[in-house]
């Protein structure tokens, strides 16, 4: 089925966050000729944001109603959500929405999965075993450990090689094998899903001044450079290790397609600072396409009509472009 008519599966996220209102906003932005999606969630919660909704039975029905109403594959909530006051009793419905979306993508019924934000701690309190979507999606695809998180905006792409772990543990987990694996996955995804034939990869250092010749830390010499050497031996265009404080300037960014970063905030601080509204989080390394807005549940503004749907719109558009690249003959 062409991507113009095969819908995306959009998960509900935490219903007490801004997911329902950015979903309504994204539908308003895309309903005339944009990327069709079906929400897997509660129709009434979305309807409260002044958009028509239509419950559907199969995702194949979504494209036929999308210009008139938000198509919804219903998921029953355990308790009515209150904006800004998340409740772990809805964790089962939140994770069921994600699992259903993955199933629709894995069976080819959906072009890809786009997720509304979840609160990690809300799910954790209910016993959810994963630090975030990224790791849960890999488990649902039977590929734990293969997941790579990339955040992208028009100005920058970044990949944190260690993801949802505390900084001390991230340093313990960082080794050449992990850097090589994440970079290979990223390289393959940029070629297959983003149409970049020969990706230019910039490898970040870890320490101040990229270690200053070993005087401010030795990981550049013992871990990062050997990984770069191995990747270059594979034929990849990899530069670095670069001093992390200067590799995100406009001039530096022009010289690479993706920055491989050593830990979560080294990657996400520059990305979200440069562009919080067009940023998209994409999961690489899995058989399905998955994107997400780059922001969280924003409980502080939920239900107040202040949420900007731009990042979700960018995520829906990026997922469709990725599907088009991937399915190109
Ligand atoms: N993809 C995801 O599921 C995802 C991503 C990031 C954070 N989170 C979760 O979100 C929760 C809150 O995290 P946080 O407070 O660090 O980050 P956040 O992105 O939710 O909020 C940070 C700030 O940005 C504002 N903001 C965020 N999105 C906005 C939008 N669309 N329009 C206008 N303002 C917006 C918020 O009001 C807040 O002031 C955490 O529990 C975290 O686990 C989930
Ligand atoms: N690490 C992401 C961020 O800070 O934006 C976010 O938590 C999303 O993670 P998942 O997509 O794995 O939920």
Topology:
Layout: E1 8-11, H1 19-30, E2 37-41, H2 43-47, E3 53-55, H3 62-65, E4 70-74, H4 91-106, E5 113-114, H5 120-125, H6 133-140, E6 148-153, E7 156-160, H7 167-173, H8 176-194, E8 200-204, H9 219-233, E9 237-242, H10 250-253, E10 258-261, H11 264-274, E11 280-284, E12 290-293, H12 310-326
Parallel strand pairs: 1-2, 1-5, 2-4, 3-4, 5-12, 7-10, 8-9, 8-10
Antiparallel strand pairs: 6-7, 6-11, 11-12
Helix pairs in contact: 8-9
The structure holds nicotinamide-adenine-dinucleotide and 4-hydroxy-L-threonine-5-monophosphate.
Nicotinamide-adenine-dinucleotide binds next to helix 5.
Strand composition percent:
15-25%
Question: What name does the CATH topology of the largest domain carry?
Answer: Isopropylmalate Dehydrogenase
Low-confidence stretches: none
Strand tally: 12
Mean pLDDT: 96
Corresponding CATH superfamily of the largest domain: Isopropylmalate Dehydrogenase
Order of SSEs: EHEHEHEHEHHEEHHEHEHEHEEH
Family: Belongs to the PdxA family.
GO molecular function, one term: magnesium ion binding
Subunit structure: Homodimer.
Pfam families: PdxA
Structure write-up:
This protein has two domains: 1-147 and 286-329, Isopropylmalate Dehydrogenase (3-Layer(aba) Sandwich); 155-274, Isopropylmalate Dehydrogenase (3-Layer(aba) Sandwich), CATH 3.40.718.10. Strand 3, helix 3 and strand 4 (70-74) form a beta-alpha-beta unit. The radius of gyration is 20 Å and the shape is globular. The protein is an alpha/beta fold. The mean pLDDT is 96. Helix content is 38%, strand content 16%. Helix 8 (176-194) packs across helix 9. It has twelve helices and twelve strands. It has a twelve-stranded mixed β-sheet, with helices on both faces. The longest helix has 19 residues, at 176-194. 4-hydroxy-L-threonine-5-monophosphate is lined by residues 132-134, 268, 281, 292, 294. It is found in: Cytoplasm. A divalent metal cation binds at residues 164, 209, 264. Belongs to the PdxA family. It catalyses: 4-(phosphooxy)-L-threonine + NAD(+) = 3-amino-2-oxopropyl phosphate + CO2 + NADH. GO terms for molecular function: 4-hydroxythreonine-4-phosphate dehydrogenase activity; cobalt ion binding; magnesium ion binding; NAD binding; zinc ion binding.
